[in-house]
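Example record for the data management plan.
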Amino acid sequence: MTDAVVQAIQNPFYFKRGDTPILVSMPHSGLSLTPEVENALTEQAKKLPDTDWFIPELYDCLETLGVGCIQANYSRYVIDLNRPVDDKPLYQTKTTGLFPTILFDESPVFVAGQEPNEGLKALYKEHIWQAYHSTIEQELARLKATFGYAILFDAHSIAAEVPMLFDGKLPDFNWGTNQGEACHIDLLTCVQNAVSSEYNQVANGRFKGGYITRRFGQPEQGIHAIQLELSQATYLNDELAKQSRYELDTDTLPVIKQQLRKLIQACVQTDLSE
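Corresponding structural encoding:
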């Protein structure tokens, strides 16, 4: 079984190098499932409700801007790439782990007794998690060597209301810099200034940056990381989303795509070399 599982995990992510100092990471946009996980999911989990929906489509400007991208192919229900491999909690409040067992609505991910076993988890760690993180590490090192610094932009999205994680309604743009430890203040300032006044935003609120931001953000070494948790209310059909049906809103989509392009351009134009 081990060889069959490893053979099946041939393409854990999509990766394309760019020719700017920026690498955009998309760890939660994956939709693929391993057979072992797919066969064990509850009916609600099969809808993949906690996915960062349509992130690759929202950032389809990256190639034309010369910005590199790494995009997960597997769902976070297989393994969550934005959690530490030892699964230590990132937040004091309730959250989900490296191998999620509950959805954001607190219902179970797996049918009772059918969760992936420890052997499968070890394979997912090695062939999906480690592969993704090693590629980021190598690419950031290359970018720093080429440009003198590197920027990791970790792109996420989430429903505007998730009572398990936070009270009330989330702002449109939620920036995380690990309380300023993951990047130079100039990077946060530039992206915040690039956000149109029609949107609201916050820095280091409920979301302070997940493991990817915290691990790779080392501004003292010339590597800067910032996470954007974008409210899905800015681009999804809200009524359908409430029914666990996820479709882009044709009216808001062009507006948010233009805004995200402006954000990435601002990052490209921000010189963080010493």
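Summary line stored alongside the record: The two ends are 51 Å apart (CA to CA).
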